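W.,

You were right to be curious about this one. When I first looked at the sequence I had no strong expectations either way, so I just let the prediction run and decided to look at it fresh. Below is the sequence, 466 residues in total, followed by the output.
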Amino acid sequence: MLNVPGIFRVHTNEIRLPVMLRVVLAIALGLTPALAAPAPALGQRAPADTVALSLQEALDLGLRRNPQVHQAAADRAAVGAGLWEAWGTLLPQVSAQGQIQRSQQGAFVLAGTEFQSPTTYTGAFQWDLTHSLLDSGRDLFRIKEARAEVDGALARYDETALETASDVKTQYLSVRRQEALVRQAEREIDRREGHLRLAEGRYEVGAVTRSDVLQARLSVTQGEVALLQALQDAEEARLALRRLLGGSLPGGPLALTSDFTVFEPEYEPDALVARALGDHPGLRESRAAQRAGEAQVWIARSSYLPTFQFQYSLARSVVDTVEFSFSDWNDRDFWVVSMSWPLFGRFERYHQTSRASANLRTAKEEERARALQIEEQVRVAHSRLHTAYATYEANVTAFELAREDLRLGEARYETGTGSFVDLLDARVRAAEAETNLIASTYDFHIALVDLERATGRELMPEGAVR
């Protein structure tokens, strides 16, 4: 329910659609049966298959089922495996090989003489251990780089979750806005039908010409078309919400149950900027990229240092031609400690170090640019939120004046002191004021969602959403 102090209240399941428009909507536009079916009026029970969805339930569904969130989670898991690989460089490599072979008895001819070859069994195995004792210190820096990549993946996941939650909130509000506009269009049809009956009554007693009746009928038809468009926009908004939720909503009528209340924002822009610069997921990702760049610089510099390796190998083999006993093994083992120090690499290491340093400088500048962008977004969103609140306050007053003007216009026309054109003008102003009030109410909450997106924090106060 959308609370507008002292004016009107909008309920989720007040939609009442004329039979003619339901048929036109279902046939001409091909909308879902749930939309074409009559929605319950105020005080009636919702259909048994109605799906009730609060804002928190929509957020939970979005974070569980949204494809972008799943992709970010998969990337996060893959980067975590990279950290294990980095730690594995500190451990030795062990390999083993083995084989067993049987050659059947045969014969061969040499210099005209035939010789018999017995059945032969051969067995062998070998295992090797290779350990890089000191890979110029690169292993330690690879671990640091892998940790930074994990932090970056976590930040990207958090940023994706933040963007998804913001999109779900915005679309949820958009659906509620369109539903409110549908109800406003229905109220407008009721109002126009009342004016049509008033014009017909005055025409029957000869107080006005038939022109007033024709204008009133045309106005009702225009209102029906406006309702049809409002229903179309509401259905499109619901489909967009379903997409953001990963298509997890079942079929049937959808009832959004969360209510929103406009409140006076009291956020300090400097405090919001400080919070955003401290822990915004986008900045955490940039800082992780900077740490990874620092590790890459040290990896490139360490290429000027020598590397040491240790290798140990043990091999055993045997050939038995009679009883398959493998009693006499041929043992062979060796170990090697080696050093490699490339003294001149044709400036390849110089190029790698320069490139890594340039990438680090780029990462630092990207972090600074991202911080400036976030600060700008926070301050702009904060200003827009206050503008949205001021607009809402102005529209509350405008709606009260337009409603009173319409009441006076109806009274003047009924008593013959005003024309039907004046009544039409008053009704148009009242409809515009009501529409503007609905739009400004949801624009306020959408501006609040934009401020949450900019700061990376939940800012909705307790009681603003019920």
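Here's what jumped out at me. Residues 348-415 form the longest helix (68 residues). And, maybe more interesting for your project: Residues 402 and 420 are 17 Å apart (CA to CA).

Coffee later to discuss?

I.
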